[in-house]
Amino acid sequence: EQVDQRRARLTRLLQGSTVDIEAAVIEELNNLGKKLGVKGEAGAKKSDTLKALRKVVESPFSDLGPAQCTLVELFGQSNTADPMADDDEGEGEEATEDGQSSSDSGFNWQSEMKMLFHKLGGVEKLARPNPSTADIGNSSIINAVGRLSAIRELPSGIGLSASLVAGKKIKGRSNLEIVVSGKDTPEAVSGQWSKVRELFSRDDTVLLFHLKNHYALVYALRESAGIQTGDPPQREIQQLEEVKDQAPGFPGKSVEKQ
Fold first, then answer.
1. What are the distances in angstroms from CA 113 to CA 14, 62, 108, 171?
2. Which of 90, 125, 171, 232 is the most buried (most CB within 10 A)?
3. What pLDDT, on the 0 to 100 scale, is given for residue 70?
4. pTM of the full predicted structure?
5. Could you give the percent of the chain with pLDDT greater than 70?
C-alpha cells in the first residue's frame, strides 16, 4: 500500500509513471551485483540506487516515458556537486510516521525516489521464504488491523482496532496516551508504568512492543521492591516480551529501575 501511495504521488509530481523506471533501476542494480532489501556488500545503498537511477534515465537508449524526461531535468538542475552523496545511514522513516508526506509542498525528488526504492526493498524482504518485517511501521500495523476488522464477520457490537499508545512525540504522531523521552523524571516514569499496567490489565486489550525483532506480544509485567539498610528502597519494573534471548518462563529484561 505504501509503495502504491508513493508511486501515485511521484506519478503526479513527475508527470508520468515510475513503474518502468523502477524495473530498469532494479535491473541495473542486479547487473552491479546489488539487490534491494539486502544488507552487507550485496545490498544496494540509497546512493547506489540513485546512481543507477541517473544512469538509467540519462541513457540515450532508454525510453521510459514522461517521468524519465522530468528526472533528466531534475538531475541537470541539481546544484550539488554529488546529488547522491547524502544519507546512506539510517533506513529510517521520513519526518512523519511511516514516511508519509502530507502535501506536495517542498517536493524533494531525491528523498522521494530513495524512499520509494527503500519501500520496494521492504516488499522484497516480506516476499522471502523467511520474511522480515523490518520495514513495517506502526501505521502499517494499525491499517492492517483496520482492514482485518472490515473483512472479518465479527459478532454485533464487537470491533477490532489498533492504535499507537506510547512513544516519543514526533511529527505525525498525535493523541499518544503515553509520551516518553530520555529526560523523563522518576516520577514521570512511574506514571507511565502505571498507565502501561492499566492498559495491560484490560480484558479487551493486548499490547505489542515495537522492537528490533520486530513486533512482540507483551505477555507479562512484573515489579518488585527491596529494602537495604541505609539505602532508599529500590523498585524494579519489568516488561516481558519475546526477544532473541527471552521466552516465556525465562527471566525478563529490566526496562526501568528506580
1. 11, 18, 9, 21
2. 125
3. 92
4. 0.62
5. 77
What CA–CA distance (Å, rounded) separates 44 from 38? 7
Task: Give the per-residue pLDDT at 23.
Answer: 94
Residue 234: beta bridge partners? 226
Grid cell 545503498 — which residue? 45
pLDDT band at 52 (very low <50, low <70, confident <90, very high): very high
Radius of gyration of the chain (CA): 23
pLDDT at 88: 43
How far is the C-alpha of 179 from the C-alpha of 62, rounded, in Å?
Answer: 50
Question: What are 171's three cell numbers?
Answer: 511529527
CA-angle at 214, arms to 174 and 154, nearest 5°: 70
Give the residue-averaged pLDDT of 64-74. 91
How far is 181 from 189, CA to CA, in rounded Å? 10
Cα distances (angstroms) measured from residue 171 to each of 100, 112, 174, 180, 182: 11, 18, 8, 14, 17
Half-sphere exposure of 48 (CA within 13 A, CB side): 23
Helices (H) and strands (E) in the chain, counts: 7, 6
